[in-house]
Amino acid sequence: MKVKVKRKWNVVAVWKWTAPDDSCGICRQAFDGCCPSCHEPGENCPIVFGKCKHCFHMHCILKWLGQPQDECPMCRQTWEFQ
Amino acid sequence: MSSSITPARKRLMKDFKRLQEDPPQGIMGAPVENDIMTWHAVIFGPEGTPFEDGAFKLTLTFTEDYPNKAPVVKFVSRVYHPNVYKDGSICLDILQNKWSPTYNITGILTSIQSLLDEPNPNSPANAEAAQLYRENRREYERKVRDCVEESWSSDEEEEEDEDEDGQDGDDDDDGADGDAPDADKPDAAEQ
Ligand SMILES: [Zn+2]
Ligand SMILES: [Zn+2]
Ligand SMILES: [Zn+2]
């Protein structure tokens, strides 16, 4: 299998996504919107904090926890909901 | 249409944007055409290391579980390194048990780049490389230089083949060069 260095450049395109600072570390979507599993911004897509003070979309952290990890994705402390 | 884009794909678009806006030194990557789940990347060997001037190609294969599961990352170029298997698989903790869903493609590629000059002797994937790294650094570096040279020469062959075939007839090839912001190195090596 070979990767063609030159060809690679053909696929470079400009994606119009904004990248605000206050975004979820897992999905990287802004907290003022919803997680990528939800379609309606704000609705039923709460933001949750751990005891370690890190916060994520609830839907995002729930997908990560228990498979079988139980660590905060940021600091690796055992995740406990605040 | 946007509602049919899965969380993994949305995340990969974020990663793509991030990599384009803030590309780390010596790292390039992009999804292959029409498939954002498969990426091709190039890591240039860090300056001041035996890997300097190497252009090592990789593939990254993502699943719909990304970012909750790490992608499968493999070198396509031959890389002589204590933590790289013969088939190009990489023994790197963040791709295995230390994966975190907060990592993105920039982080993955940067970690692999730093692994090049900072092998982890505790998890040898290439026993000979690990032994030479410990006991005969000069010979180790000679073997690394071999794969650095190989990383370019395989490109040249490929380009020659394409030119001779002439079947390509694809104007995009030339256009792409001009558009690539960081294409200096690959172009230089092809001449
Ligand atoms: Zn999220
Ligand atoms: Zn949600
Ligand atoms: Zn934390």
| Helix and strand element order of chain A | HEEH
Number of helices of chain A: 2
CATH superfamily of chain A: Zinc/RING finger domain, C3HC4 (zinc finger)
Cofactors and ligands present?
A: zinc ion
Any guess at the CATH architecture of chain B? Roll
Percent of residues in beta strands of chain B:
5-15%
- Number of structurally distinct domains of chain A: 1
Task: Please tell me about this protein's structure.
The complex is a heterodimer of chains A (82) and B (191). With 82 residues, chain A is mostly loops. Chain A has helices spanning 5-8, 58-64, and strands at 47-49, 55-57. Chain A has a single domain (20-82), classed as Zinc/RING finger domain, C3HC4 (zinc finger) (Herpes Virus-1), CATH 3.30.40. Chain A has two helices and two strands, in the order H-E-E-H. In chain A, strands 1-2 form a two-stranded antiparallel sheet. The longest helix of chain A is centred in the C-terminal third of the chain and has 7 residues, at 58-64. Mean pLDDT of chain A is 75; it is low at 1-21. Chain B has 191 residues and is α+β, with helices and mostly antiparallel strands. Chain B has helices at 7-21, 105-117, 127-135, 137-165, 172-179, 184-190; strands spanning 27-32, 35-44, 55-61, 72-75. In chain B, strands 1-2-3-4 form a four-stranded antiparallel beta sheet. In chain B, a hairpin with a 2-residue loop joins strand 1 (27-32) and strand 2. At the A-B interface, helix 1 and helix 2 of A face helix 1, strand 1, strand 3, helix 4 and helix 5 of B. One zinc ion (ZN) binds at residues 50, 52, 54, 72, 74-75, 77 of chain A. Chain A: Keywords: Cell cycle, Cell division, Metal-binding, Mitosis, Ubl conjugation pathway, Zinc, Zinc-finger.
Features:
heterodimer, A: 82 residues, little secondary structure, two-stranded antiparallel ribbon, B: Ubiquitin Conjugating Enzyme, disordered C terminus, binds zinc ion, metal-binding (chain A)
